[in-house]
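Q: Convert this sequence to structure tokens.
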Amino acid sequence: MRLSVLILLGLTLCWPTGGFAFTADKRETLRGLGAVSVLVEYLPDDVEREGVNREQLTRDIEGRLRQAGLRVLTISEIANSPGAPYLYVAVHPITGPSVNFTAYAIGLTLKQLVQLSRDPPTEFFATTWEGPAPPSWLSAPRVLDIRTRISEAVGRFIIDYQAVNPK
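A:
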């Protein structure tokens, strides 16, 4: 059990959110953003069996974004939108040495099409914002905990969006 905790603690400290800190420069990438699409990655089977499904998560997130004043892009609209921005949601299991111990890392990132300043024709999608989603320490997937963590990350995105896009 100690080894499991140490492994998960190490993953938490090294998680790509940089200690779950938010900086003004990340929020600045949201300035002028008026529309975004939502992409929820395929969920682990055990999470879906517990009642969390991609379609419902997508609808929940899109509803909150609309309430915050963002237009939600359809798949056909995103190709014609500057930067083709989309929120990417992923739930990944982190299995420890114990068979009965699994943590779930929940990630929420905004991806946008960017250009290299030294070579402007070179474009690619890059993460320009990422949300706070520390691993959930669960022995089994719990719908409420996973939904809550995703909701908290979406809430943080909305706060950061509104901070640089006042009405």
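The CA atoms of residues 111 and 127 lie 4 Å apart.
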